[in-house]
Specification:
Blueprint: E1 5-6, E2 17-22, H1 26-45, E3 51-56, H2 65-68, H3 80-92, E4 97-99, E5 118-121, H4 126-136, E6 145-151, E7 155-161, H5 178-181, H6 200-206, H7 211-229, E8 231-232, E9 234-240, E10 245-250, H8 253-268
Parallel strand pairs: 2-3, 2-5, 3-4, 5-6
Antiparallel strand pairs: 1-8, 6-7, 7-9, 9-10
């Protein structure tokens, strides 16, 4: 049954939405560079006092990163998260923060990371997604939404869900997360995709140049609609860059049940 999801955050023009972006690579950098526009829009709509963003990644800029990611030769060797956040703060006058380390199972217990309204996961491995999923599904975690983005050479997906924790109780209408609908995405034993290439030409051959930006803008558009209107009828999408087709993931309780049943059957084979 198709339904509409209602925003679980109370609109308050005096309150900022707390966002944690995990990963500052191809998709993470595209998401982060787009967030200031959402921040400005929220202030103009008067529904929230913008965004309070933390970007987390321990990786440093390599020469190859300068091909598909918003880094220059002068950034090589510097931390990705620090470079992006400093650039955004300088241009937009924001006070966002960079955390030059990897997300791990203890991230939420560390002093500098508090309860998050929206965690945006832009990681490129099943193992990293598993760590995020296990952290968000703890009963003492208060993260309201988990937006996961992932892609391969010419396709990708983004899924907005509500992890089952103390902020999100059991309900037939709770948005199912990417790990609940597609558990293989956090199955590290299934193997990982090839590691990023060391050369520019290999990097471009392994992945279409604009797939990260396309996914990021689609995901940000979904967030913008939810935060502006308070309701959405879809909570994700699947992109095929080869055909140019984007398929929406409807907020549909029956679709969720069918997807999970199909996954269980596949796991028993």
């Amino acid at each position: 049954m198709r339904i509409e999801h209602t925003l679980s955050l109370r609109a308050d023009p005096r309150r900022s939405i707390r966002v944690l972006v995990v990963g500052a690579g191809g998709t993470g950098s595209a998401i982060t560079m787009g967030l200031p526009y959402l921040d400005q829009a929220l202030r103009a709509w008067g529904r929230f006092a913008g965004l309070d963003v933390v970007l987390m990644d321990a990786d440093t800029v390599s020469e190859t990163n300068c091909i598909r990611q918003p880094f220059s030769v002068s950034d090589i060797g510097q931390n990705k998260a620090t470079v992006l956040v400093n650039r955004i703060n300088l241009f937009w006058g924001t006070h966002w923060r960079a955390e030059p380390r990897y997300f791990d199972e203890n991230t939420f217990e560390k002093n500098r990371i508090t309860t998050i309204d929206i965690l945006i996961g832009c990681v490129d491995s099943r193992a990293a997604r598993r760590v995020i999923a296990e952290s968000l599904f703890r009963h003492n975690n208060g993260t309201v939404y988990w937006l996961d983005l992932g892609n391969n050479a010419a396709s990708g997906q983004f899924v907005l869900g509500q992890p089952l924790n103390y902020s999100n109780r059991r309900s037939t209408q709770r948005l199912r997360t990417v790990s609940e609908l597609y558990p293989e995405i956090i199955d590290a034993e299934a193997g990982e995709d090839p590691l990023p290439s060391c050369s520019a030409i290999e990097a471009l051959e392994r992945q279409e140049p604009f797939i990260n930006q396309t996914l990021a803008m689609s995901a940000l558009s979904l967030l913008a609609r939810l935060l502006r209107y308070g309701k959405i009828a879809h909570h994700g999408g699947f992109l095929n860059a080869a055909t140019g087709k984007m398929t929406a993931l409807a907020v549909d309780t029956e679709l969720w049940r069918k997807t999970r049943r199909r996954n269980r059957k596949m796991q028993t084979r």
